[in-house]
Amino acid sequence: MWQGLLICTLLTVAGTGLARLPLLAEAGVSPLVLALLVGIVAGNLPLSRHLTKAGPGLAFATRRLLRGGIVLFGLSLTLQQVVGLGPMVLLLDALVITSVLCAGYLIGTRLLGLDRETALLTSAGSAICGAAAILATESTIRSRPAATSMAVATVVLFGSLAMLVYPLLYPLMGMDESLFGVYIGATVHEVAQVVAAGEAVGPDALANAVIVKLVRVMLLVPFLLIVGQWWLRRHATAGSSEGKAGMTVPWFAFGFMAMVGFNSFVTLPAPLHSALVQLGQLSLTMAMAALGFETRLEKLRALGLRPFVLALILFALLMGGGGLASALLMG
Of 142, 201, 212, 199, which is closest to residue 177 (Cα–Cα)? Predict the structure, then answer.
């Protein structure tokens, strides 16, 4: 156990240190992403093949720490924020998530020939909340590390592109600042990327973007419950032993909702609240490092460019369809 956890800790320190470099900090690159990349590099070094006792610690990080981090992520959202923008925000986010997930899965599996895991993880990352959604979905369907790493890579690429493109689109879209903030929150991948894009447009855009984005994060819970049951049925139909083992209930999703409720009605001392949020971030970063360490480059190469093609299609769908939906429902 200790060997795997030590590896995760070292990779997390490396990823966090890289994220604080001025160039990467200005670009808004998350420590989660850098820990994943450092983990992939370390996991493919010849020395890693001899770390035979690392398995239990890595499994602990990708399961227990991951789920604990998702639970603590609930402290970033309150029910008051959701109610503030009205019920149409919930409808907008639900429409965006449902359309992107359905389109992504069908296009990925039927047109691009991707395996179900990669198509679902890539679609979830684009539709809901980037790497956090990918990690939560991975924990529910128990996918391969290579599929998870590839899905995270697509979120990084197109989410970073969104941070640059959306501020340039603002003068061309014919939306006021508040409505454009709703558009950003409903369609950009990661929370940090939403903050960067909204801040570049203006304070009203930033405020609405963050709230709409956090509502999307909240919708991760019903998605996990639905996808867990659906995934079980798919595997049971295929006759796999995993499908017959019973539905994987994502209990951590209920923990996430409990933290949202707690954060809505209980005010923790600011230092304690900040410490818990950072602890959740640390747990997610260690989980990402473990996933990277278990990813083999030959398996990534086998997936090819098709996940990026799928992510590009979904990026276009988010920009076009999400802009139209934002204008119709919130304009």
Answer: 201
Q: How many domains does the chain have?
A: 1
The CA distance from 205 to 197, in Å, is 9
When pLDDT is cut at 50, 70 and 90, the band that residue 321 belongs to is very high
- 163 phi and psi angles, rounded to 5 deg: -60, -30
Tokens of 313: 């299609």
**pTM of the predicted model, to two decimals?**
0.76
**pLDDT category of residue 100 using cuts at 50, 70 and 90:** very high
- Distance between terminal CA atoms of the chain? 54
For 75, the domain range is 2-330
Alpha carbons 282 and 104: distance in angstroms, whole number: 30
Inform me whether the pLDDT recorded for 247 exceeds 50: no
Comparing CA positions, the residue from 24, 53, 73 lying closest to residue 283 is 73
Which of 129, 160, 147, 136 has its CA nearest to residue 283? Answer: 136
Whether the predicted pLDDT of 240 surpasses 90:
no
